[in-house]
Design goal:
The protein is 39% helix and 19% strand. Helix 1 links the parallel strand 1 and strand 2. It is elongated and about 85 Å long. It is built from 17 helices and 19 strands. The strands form four sheets. A seven-stranded mixed beta sheet has the order 5-4-3-2-1-14-15, covered by helices on one side. It has a six-stranded mixed beta sheet with strand order 6-7-8-9-12-13, with helices on one face. A four-stranded parallel beta sheet has the order 18-17-16-19, sandwiched between helices. It has three domains: 248 residues, Nitrilase/N-carbamoyl-D-aminoacid amidohydrolase, CATH 3.60.110; 208 residues, HUPs (Rossmann fold); 42 residues. By secondary structure, the protein is of the alpha/beta class.
Length: 546
């Protein structure tokens, strides 16, 4: 029997863009047909985008998705296709349609509905009951949807019904541990069933979630036949040999660096680009302080959008060091972005003068420090409004976890690229970006982020000789405690038993718990860990649990 050729659409299908998504499917189907594919495969909820959330409560939206499926079915002569869509039958199902011969030949419904982490499927969908199989050129092809492959039963039912190949369409968000887990699960399903597995995943940023693609081919013996690159849009060609249930990739794109830092950086770049472009902004604006967080944010913005769409503003105060001034200017000039220096002293003094009658008798404290940050926030928001450029917040996960950030000050911004990136990871990413720059240009001393900014002690520069460690434990220690408490959900007793100082643990955990109110008011940012603040980690603001 001849090999079955598949065309796998590892592409972005934005949420709500029903007409554009339909047109993209039509374009890719034509390309698949021209390449003599027997089957074109598209991601989970291709037509609506994932996750469509409460758009699924609108009958007009569901009707538009159904109409698009009819349009696509009419264009399948000579080509079969599997396309994800929301299927409304009184109740709504997360569905995949098998299109062939000018019609919707079959529809299957997602059986396992995830309701953890960022997933909220049970709010919108009813579960399916059976695994569907289509016969294509003599090959029995089962098709499942995302979570269905993470549990053994749907794949086992497909194999019992005679499947030789299982095609899984996905909208599986990226985090640092995801790809290893995927491969383990898919390998286990293949070994349990004897079926080869095609795993196709969505690409793109959607609000706080980033989808990486990272599609996989798994042979019937559980071995990995091919790995698609992360964050690359591509039509992936594959051949399935039913005689030995093996898969072969045909000229898949490759990336030179698959390291953790390279993939994480690509995730952040994709998150920034898609958030800005999908929401129709001309460009971005950020405060460039001369510190490492804003320096990395600037590099990400330029890599995502190009220098012509990025504006950086340095806003010095009497406490701003010459190192900060020099580092910000050097980086802005090297990256070629629009750059301005606006001193905040006059505006800050005006605030202090106005407030002095009500401040009398009270010593200076963090109020005055926070007022500096809020003065900068007011100015940045005014520039954002006037020039139509979205303001990027530059804070990191370590700061957001313990509340080391000023509401309506440095927390101002509509998108926060580093929101889910710990400070220690900020350093690693910055060093990696410089290494990548030097490798690209062949100049060992070339850089994107000023080395002096990376090596300096971190400081908010809100008073003389201030460093972050005046207020926080060293970041290596802080981030280790935070990861155990946030990602691993360990108790304080467990963290202390692991060897961390008792008083430090109690202090850090208290800061995390009492600053939930700040995080509720923070900008969205790309989820890149297994436990991000926002839709994934939702703790009560008011709570007696300590």
């Amino acid at each position: 029997m001849a090999a079955l050729r598949l065309a796998l659409a590892q592409y972005d299908f934005p949420v709500g863009a029903v007409a554009a998504n339909t047109a993209k499917v039509q374009e890719l189907m034509a390309e698949a047909r021209a390449g003599h594919a027997a089957l074109a495969v598209f991601p989970e909820l291709t037509i609506s985008g994932y996750p469509p959330e409460d758009l699924l409560l609108r009958p007009s939206f569901l009707a538009a998705c159904q109409e698009s499926m009819q349009q696509l079915a009419a264009q399948t002569n000579g080509l079969a296709a599997i396309v994800g869509f929301p299927h409304s039958q009184g109740e709504v199902f997360n569905a995949a349609a098998f299109l062939r011969g000018g019609e919707i030949a079959q529809v299957t419904h997602k059986q396992i509905l995830p309701n953890y982490g960022v997933f909220d499927d049970k709010r919108y969908f009813r579960p399916g009951r059976t695994s569907a199989i289509a016969v294509l050129d003599g090959v029995r092809v089962a098709y499942l949807i995302c979570e269905d492959i993470w549990q053994a039963e749907p794949a086992a039912a497909a194999a019992k019904a005679g499947a030789e190949l299982i095609v899984v369409i996905n909208a599986s968000p990226w985090d640092a541990a995801k790809q290893t887990t995927r491969e383990e699960v898919l390998s286990a399903r293949a070994q349990e069933t004897g079926c080869a597995v095609v795993y196709l995943n969505l690409v793109g940023g959607q609000d706080e979630v980033v989808y990486d693609g990272g599609s996989l081919l798994v042979n019937g013996d559980g071995s990995i036949a091919a790995r698609a690159p992360a964050f690359v849009d591509a039509l992936l060609w594959a051949d399935f040999d039913p005689s030995d249930r093996t898969l072969r990739a045909r000229d898949w794109p490759s990336v030179p660096d698959r390291s953790h830092e390279a993939t994480l950086y690509a995730a952040l770049v994709r998150g920034v680009r898609d958030y800005i472009d999908k929401n129709g902004f001309r460009g971005v604006l950020l405060g460039l302080s001369g510190g490492i967080d804003s320096a990395l944010t600037l590099a990400l913005a330029v890599d995502a959008l190009g220098p012509e769409r990025v504006t950086a503003v340095m806003m010095p105060m009497r406490y701003t060091s010459q190192l900060s001034l020099d580092g910000a200017r050097e980086q802005a000039e090297r990256l070629g972005v629009e750059y301005h220096v606006l001193g905040i002293e006059p505006a800050y003094d005006a605030f202090i003068t106005t407030l002095t009658p009500l401040f009398q008798g009270k010593p200076a404290d963090t109020t005055e420090e926070n007022l500096q940050s809020r003065t900068r926030g007011v100015m940045l928001m005014a520039l954002s409004n006037k020039h139509g450029r979205l303001l990027l917040a530059t804070g990191n996960k370590s700061e957001m976890a313990v509340g080391y950030a000023t509401l309506y000050g440095d927390m101002c911004g509509a998108y926060a690229p580093l929101k889910d990136v710990y400070k220690t990871e900020v350093y690693r990413l910055s060093r990696w970006r410089n290494q990548a720059q030097a490798l690209q240009t062949g100049k060992p001393d070339d850089w994107t982020i000023p080395p002096a900014v990376i090596e300096r002690p971190p400081s908010a520069e809100l008073r003389d000789n201030q460093t972050d460690q005046d207020s926080l434990p060293p970041y290596d220690e802080l981030d280790a405690i935070l990861a155990r408490f946030i990602e691993d959900e360990q108790s304080q007793a467990e963290i202390i038993a692991a060897g961390y100082d008792e008083n430090t643990v109690h202090r850090v955990v208290r800061l995390v718990l009492v600053n939930e109110f700040k995080r509720r008011q923070s900008a969205p940012g790309p989820r890149v860990t297994t436990r991000a603040f926002g839709r994934e980690r939702r703790y009560p603001i008011t709570s007696g649990w300590k």
